[in-house]
Amino acid sequence: MSNTQSDRSRVAASDPSEVRYFGKKHDLTDDQVQALIKEYGNDRNTLEAAVARMKGPTAA
Q: Do residues 19 and 53 lie in contact, with contact meaning Cβ atoms separated by under 8 Å?
């Protein structure tokens, strides 16, 4: 099931395609995405900030 307009700000841990998409976007495994959701919740902005902190600054 895909996101609707009302829930695009969340990553549905119960939807394998959503977990896979978020992981592919950030070069993470499904297990890593699930662990992030468990630790930080499913708010997409919070998860993306956690990934940024985890990966550190990128070279330009």
A: no
The answer to whether the beta carbons of residues 23 and 31 sit under 8 Å apart is: no
Contact 32, 23 (CB under 8 A): yes
**What confidence tier does 8 reach under pLDDT thresholds 50, 70, 90?**
confident
The pLDDT assigned to 57 comes to: 74
Query: Coil, strand or helix: which one is 43?
Result: strand
Using CB atoms within 10 Å of the CB of residue 36, give its burial: 0 to 12 exposed, 13 to 18 middle, 19+ buried. buried
